[in-house]
Amino acid sequence: MIGRRQQVALALTAVLTAAAACQNHSRQEAAPQGQPAPTAARGFTLVASGDVLPHTSVIERAGFDAGGNGYDFRPMLAGVQPVVSQADLALCHMETVYGADGEYTGYPLFKSPPEIARGLAATGYDGCSTASNHALDDGAAGIRRTLDAMDQAGLRHAGTARDEAEARSVTLHRAGSAKVAHLSYTFGTNNIALPPGQPWAVNLIDVDRMTADARAARQAGADVVVVSVHWGTEWQDAPDRLQLTLAQRLTASATDGHPDIDLILGTHAHVPQAYEKVNGTWVVYGMGDQIAGEMYNGEGAQDPRGNQSTLGRFTFAPPVRPGEGWRVTKAEFIPQLYDLDAGRVLNLNRAIAQGAELEGIRDRIRDVVLSRGAAADGLAMGE
């Protein structure tokens, strides 16, 4: 379990470690003949998923799965546990904050059971983005409870903060032989003002700040920088102008010829959106809702797309030559569905293989994901 003070310490330690590595490099090259060579750098796989948005029906289902003794979200996520747990690094998006003492609510002001953090960790997730339009649904207290519960579950987090020191720290994960920084931002907080005296409580989208944070993460020792962005127009399959413009600007940002950001993961729109390679960097405009109750679109009609989503899986390889950066060598998406009747997240490819009649849903997700030409850049549907 890594608390907020440890996050700050990790960021500082990463800077010192990076400096020490540079100082020791020449000594490693000059090691006497016959000694073992330094361990080769190892690549890693990163899996990411969309919004966890527990409506009242979802909370009730987790209570039923716990047999009336609290809430158990593990059965709900068991269908994707094999994919998530096999990744070297797995990231989710926790859209809501947590309540306390049984005071849990769904839409419009969410307060979710803190047991969901344990369910996500047990599924294999290592961390979550937490900057969203619902991040202030219960003010600063909601943020504190949420991050405390994540810490207790061993689940890292990025995007919201309990104090200024935490807001300034860098969330670093170890994956393979890489240090991976995770940053998180949202377009807004549903017109709820930031807590008085706490402008750092929720990270808001600002392209200059985002690129500066990415560079700071590199200075803190990150080999790979992943940015989660809560953006887009709800119920729109295609990315909107803000998404397209921001993706262009973020992926164009570079330092010494190397991209400042290596992967962008989008959430918020409630529906799966396209994947696209922009300026050589993969952008997922929207992964959709991994967990949500019955969803109603802007016209007030129940919309099944609100329970459809994707898992993104990206394989990173270490630099081939000195001075080069880490790179994505394989990009995949895995179509998912939250089955409202069963209260379960389904890996659609595996569900179809077991005889479920879900091909139409899977094919619709595939067509949307590939709608901006990602297949030509190597994106494939995974199992």
From TrEMBL:
Keywords: Signal. InterPro entries: Capsule_synth_CapA, CW_Biosynth-Accessory, Metallo-depent_PP-like. Pfam families: PGA_cap. Residues 45-294 form the Capsule synthesis protein CapA domain. Residues 1-20 form the signal peptide. Belongs to the CapA family. PANTHER family: PGA BIOSYNTHESIS PROTEIN CAPA, POLYGLUTAMINE SYNTHESIS ACCESSORY PROTEIN RV0574C-RELATED. This is CapA family protein. It comes from Streptomyces actinomycinicus.
